[in-house]
Structure to design on (187 residues):
């Protein structure tokens, strides 16, 4: 049930999206070439594996996107922002322990750094992409298109299936314009 989606910057993004429906992980033969090309953009060496979005209704207002972000290049890549279909606002979040000992999610300063030749895991209860101001119900079996922007200005896209999931019920540290008055919304 894992879905692997990869995308490359600008010109290659459309072709990559069209091919990912049947595709698997990036072929091992391609990874070394990308790792050797230190002059390319972060998006050119990006991959997303096992991506998924927690099902939510428009009334829920928010949900999370998860998966494994890969970087086949020889330099670190930093995701600084994101957009997603069906969400009016998207933030990069982390989960920390609040003063009361409970898990609290908040916007992650500086974004997500994917180490050179490595991965950065997005998972419930940890770093994740927060989809906010939902514009429609995100039902199991549908898909969400996610676009990431890197610190070098390049962008990459991937598609994540929506799945039912009962976990990831951290409190939200409000103040990011999420539209929830109590500051304790859950995703």
């Amino acid at each position: 049930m894992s879905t692997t989606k990869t995308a490359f910057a600008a010109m290659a993004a459309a072709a990559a999206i069209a091919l990912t429906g049947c595709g698997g992980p990036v072929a091992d033969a391609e990874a070394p070439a990308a790792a050797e090309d230190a002059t390319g953009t972060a998006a050119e060496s990006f991959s997303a594996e096992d991506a998924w979005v927690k099902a939510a209704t428009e009334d829920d207002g928010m949900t999370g996107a998860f998966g494994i972000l890969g970087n086949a290049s020889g330099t670190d890549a930093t995701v600084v922002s994101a957009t997603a279909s069906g969400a009016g606002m998207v933030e990069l979040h982390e989960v920390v322990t609040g003063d009361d000992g409970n898990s609290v999610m908040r916007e992650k300063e500086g974004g997500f750094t994917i180490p050179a030749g490595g991965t950065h895991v997005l998972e419930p209860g940890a770093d994740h992409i927060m989809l906010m101001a939902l514009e429609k119900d995100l039902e199991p079996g549908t898909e969400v298109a996610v676009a990431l922007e890197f610190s070098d200005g390049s962008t990459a896209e991937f598609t994540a299936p929506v799945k039912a999931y009962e976990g990831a019920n951290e409190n939200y540290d409000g103040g990011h314009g999420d539209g929830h008055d109590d500051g304790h919304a859950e995703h």
Helices lie at 10-19, 30-36. Residues 145 and 159 are 4 Å apart (CA to CA). Residues 1-37, 175-187 have pLDDT under 50 and may be disordered. The chain has one domain: 4-165.
